[in-house]
Structures are given as C-alpha cells and as structure tokens.
Write a structure and sequence with these properties.
The structure is a single chain. With about 280 residues, the protein is an all-alpha fold. It contains twelve helices and no strands. The longest helix has about 35 residues, at about 10-45.
C-alpha cells in the first residue's frame, strides 16, 4: 500500500482547491443578492409587491433544480471538468447580467442562469474532488468544498458591506433610489462575483479530467498518468485496478422507480423530511 509521503499533496491540494471554487461561487452567488435586495427592489419598483420580491429572491432555486438534474447527465457524457467549466461560464453570465440589466424580467433570467451554475457546482465540485483524491485524504479534501461554500457566503457579505454606502437616518425611498446604492452600488455587488467566476473558469482549464471518467472512456493510459502524478506508479496501478473492478460491478442502470420501492422508501422519506425541517428552522 502507498504511504502518505508518496503522495504529491501540493498538486492534490491545488486540484481540490480549484474544484472547490465551485463551492465558493455557490455560497457567494446564493448570498450576494441579500445585500442588493433593498436597492434593486426600489430600482425595479417591486418594493410593495411581495410576489415579485419573493420571485426575485427565490428564482435562482428554479435554476438550482435544473442544474442539479442535468449535472449527472453532463458528467456521464463529458466528464466532470467540462461541466464545471460550463458552470463557471454560467456564474459569469449571471453576475454580469444581474448587475447590468435595467429590466426585471431579464434580472430573473440571469438569476435562474446563476442558479443552474449553483446546481451543477454543488454536485460536481465534490464529485471531482472525491475522484482525484486517495482514500486517506478523501474526506478532508471533499470537506474543503463545504468550507469554501461558507467562505463564499462570508465573502459576499464582506463585499456587500464595503460596496454599500451608509444610509442616512430618515432617508426616504426616493433618496435611497437616487443614491450610489440605488443607482450603482447594488450592481457592483453582483459584479464582484466576476472575479472568482473568472478565476474558476481559467483555473479549471489547468486541472486534468477525472481519472475515473477517463478509465470509463477507455483512456486508461491517461488516467494512469494522472494517478501516477498524484501518488506514484504503484498507487496508479492499484487505483486503475480498483476503478476497473468497480465499473464492471456497476454497469447496470437504475430506474427512477427504485427510489420509492422497498428499503429505499423510508430513506427517501427521511431525506425529504430533514430537508423540509432544515428550511423551516432557517426561517
């Protein structure tokens, strides 16, 4: 068995952190709208309409559902790397468009686009990290994605804090609308995401494809080359053997109906109930 010191941890950490930028953008895109909310609502004249206010805040959820649903299909066909690059593009489009548009309907479209990026990144970033990580480091490296989500949330709050100007006590809605915050500040809150989104886009071109995907695509030599760089030739051969065995054992497709049959039904029910209570407790 390969020893700890045989792993190229610097290289491995670089791959994990690059992929974990997807988690950072997940957290950033999800939260940045909170700081912009009081100002874009005045700009789009939706301040007194709870329906339009709620739709502006939650529209990204629709994109999240779609992004999560297509992430598996895209990753099976194109691997983990290309869909993550696509997610970076979607984050970039959403960040720029949300801040640039003067039309409420287009604002919603851009938020949905960002939501698709969130859904894809939330599924594929930890998957990529898990597939390039040796078992001894896998848990800790995958946890980096969770950490970067929280860091992204914090970064969004910090950016909003420094971009927004203090609102004078007793300021009217008209005064706020015509202030820096109401005319430009909320736009820059969204545009701040362009920096990490751009970094994610360019850095993803520097990382290799998932060894597991390459092995599944019959590119074993390329997969072994990547694994050898991570842990040496012996480690690479052991991993290739394990991957090939697991692919042979998991070559059957599972029908959606299996999720609600037999032993899976209570597991699905518990998951749904926990998700509902998690949101309820957050209100």
């Amino acid at each position: 068995m390969s020893q700890k010191h045989q792993y190229n941890f610097t290289y491995l950490l670089g791959l994990a952190l690059t992929s974990a930028l997807g988690g950072f953008l997940f957290g950033f895109d999800w939260v940045v709208i909170g700081g912009a909310k009081p100002f874009y609502e005045l700009f789009f004249s939706i301040k007194g309409d709870p329906t339009l206010q709620g739709w502006a805040m939650s529209s990204a959820l629709v994109g999240c559902i779609g992004g999560a649903m297509i992430s598996g299909i895209l990753s099976d066909k194109y691997g983990r790397k290309q869909p993550l690059i696509l997610a970076a593009v979607l984050f970039t489009i959403s960040a720029y468009g949300s801040g640039a548009t003067d039309d409420y309907s287009f604002f919603i479209i851009y938020r949905v686009i960002g939501g698709i990026g969130i859904g894809m990144a939330s599924a594929l970033s930890p998957l990529y990290i898990a597939e390039i990580s040796p078992a001894i480091y896998r848990g800790r490296l995958v946890a980096l994605n969770q950490l970067t989500i929280v860091i992204g949330i914090l970064a969004a709050q910090i950016c909003n804090y420094f971009i927004a100007e203090p609102i004078p006590e007793g300021a009217t809605e008209s005064a706020i609308l015509n202030s820096w915050n109401g005319t430009s500040g909320w736009r820059w809150m969204f545009w701040a995401e362009l920096i990490p989104a751009g970094a994610f886009f360019f850095l993803m071109f520097l990382v290799p494809k998932s060894p597991r995907f390459l092995a599944k695509a019959n590119k074993v030599d390329k997969a072994q080359e990547i694994l050898a760089r991570i842990g040496g030739e012996i480690y690479a051969q052991q991993e290739i053997t394990g991957i090939e065995q697991s692919l042979q054992q998991n070559d059957q497709k599972v029908h959606w109906g299996e999720l609600v049959k037999g032993k899976m039904r209570p597991v699905m029910l518990i998951g749904i109930v926990l998700a509902i209570f998690q949101q309820w407790c957050g209100i």
